[in-house]
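WARN retry 2 of 3 for item q-0093 after timeout on previous attempt; input resubmitted unchanged.
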Amino acid sequence: QVQLVESGGGLVQAGGSLRLSCAASGRTFSSLVMAWFRQAPGKEREFVAAANRSGSSTRYADSAKGRFTISRDNAKNTVYLQMNSLKPEDTAVYYCAARPGLGLVQEKERYDYWGQGTRATVSS
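OK item q-0093 returned
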C-alpha cells in the first residue's frame, strides 16, 4: 500500500507560479512511476505529467509543456510539480498518483494509488 499526501496548492494570479509537492510512504518510492493529474469543476480528471522511477524520463500533457516541470527526490520520497506562467484554465484540484512498473502512461485507470488532492486557483 502507498499513501500519498499533496501540498502546495493555493490562490495565485495569472502569470504566477506554484510548486506542488507529494510525499509518499508505505512502499519503496523508487519503485514507483509518479504522475500528476488535475480535475477542474465539471470536467474529467486529466493527465498533467509523469516521471519514471529515477526521474530521468518525463512526459507532459500538451497543456503543460513548456510551463510545468515534474521532478522527484527519491531520498525524500517526494515528487514535485513546478507550475509557471499559470493561466485561469489551470484552476483545478491537482492529484498525485503512483503505479508500479515502467510506463509513463496517461490513463488514470492505470494508476493504483492516489492522494487526496490539493486545490490550485488562478485568478485573472
